[in-house]
Design goal:
Largest sheet: 7 strands, antiparallel
Number of strands: 10
Structural class: alpha+beta
Radius of gyration: 20 Å
Bound molecules: zinc ion
Distance between the termini: 35 Å
Strand content: 15-25%
Helix content: 25-40%
Length: 317
């Protein structure tokens, strides 16, 4: 099955957007099902493009963001039986079963259920960071928020602001992931297998798009919290020092003064108390960390075969 350009365009324009690689994974049989929030129109478009998939629209107790936007819960599955049990387990809020039905690795579902922090806190990512010996880009979940959002006051505003700031990077900005769950570690083997399959499916259908997604995920990231981070075009050495050429212009909600120091600099050293920004040997700024988890580097690699300046041109035009 090959998708037409027009069909892909329609998928990209579904209200509140479905993650295209998740949808393709279900359509091509590598993932059993997915849940997302959209409206009737969105469900209709998917049904038309993928007539063999089972789609159920449900309006259970949704969060505030969904209510404001008149969104429903949409379940898409390879068969009707699975779609129905997903709705049922979702209403019963049985997280273990939901994870299983969505095809998530049990190691990851377990660690997510047994967590002792808010899903949107920086501790959530720091815990995964601590569990990881290596950081594989296929498991990079930093820019997919769906499983990490708790409805806190202002959350909906924050996410809207984030997408508005990055609207020149549509549709990539809404699809920055190869796994849709929260991994137990950034080298979790089971997650990597899922990520690789998703990557291949996306690559077969949208090679240029898949390259762009990879070029963001396979970079070092300095992480502060869910909407505050910086992606770099650079390398982390064995001592954990990040040397970089530039900041990748996907913007989080980070303080603009601080961001400018990163843009000016070319080297970062992080310790327990501070994040130090250098230009060659000269220190430009020392950011005092509020706690140990306020600022740490996740080294997802450096995707050299992609020309990052394409993003700068996009931003300027
Ligand atoms: Zn895992």
């Amino acid at each position: 099955m090959n998708l037409e350009k027009e069909q892909l365009y329609q998928i990209f324009n579904i209200k509140n957007t479905v993650i295209i690689q998740e949808l393709l994974s279900v359509a091509f049989g590598s993932k059993p099902a997915l849940i997302f929030a959209s409206d009737k129109e969105g469900a209709k478009i998917i049904k038309k493009i993928f007539p063999k998939l089972s789609i159920i629209l449900e309006k259970p107790e949704l969060n505030i963001a969904h209510k404001i936007n008149h969104l429903s819960l949409i379940v898409i599955a390879k068969n009707n039986k699975l779609a129905k049990s997903l709705i049922k387990t979702h209403i019963n809020n049985n997280m273990m079963q939901i994870g299983e039905l969505l095809g998530y690795p049990s190691c990851c579902v377990n660690s997510w259920i047994n967590r002792d922090y808010d899903t949107d806190s920086n501790k959530a990512i720091h815990k995964i960071y601590e569990n990881s010996r290596n950081f594989h880009f296929l498991n990079n979940n930093l820019f997919n928020f769906s499983s990490r959002l708790r409805v806190y006051k202002g959350m909906y505003k924050d996410i809207k602001k984030y997408y508005r700031k990055n609207n020149v990077f549509e549709p990539v900005i809404h699809n920055l992931q190869f796994i849709s769950h929260v991994p137990c570690s950034y080298d979790c083997k089971q997650s990597k297998i899922i990520g690789e399959e998703t990557y291949q499916i996306l690559n077969n259908n949208l090679p240029e798009f898949s390259k762009q997604v990879k070029s963001i995920l396979k970079r070092p990231v300095l992480f502060f919290d869910i909407f505050n981070w910086v992606i770099f075009d650079g390398l982390v050495n064995k001592d954990g020092v990040l040397k970089y050429k530039k900041v990748v212009p996907f913007i989080s909600l980070i303080n603009s003064k601080l961001l400018n120091y990163f843009k000016e600099g070319n080297k970062i050293i992080v310790n327990n108390k501070s994040v130090e920004i250098f230009k060659d040997k000269k220190i430009l700024y020392s950011y005092k960390k509020k706690n140990e988890v306020d600022g740490f580097i996740l080294n997802f690699g450096n995707y050299k075969s992609f020309d990052i300046s394409i993003y700068e041109k996009q931003k300027e035009s």
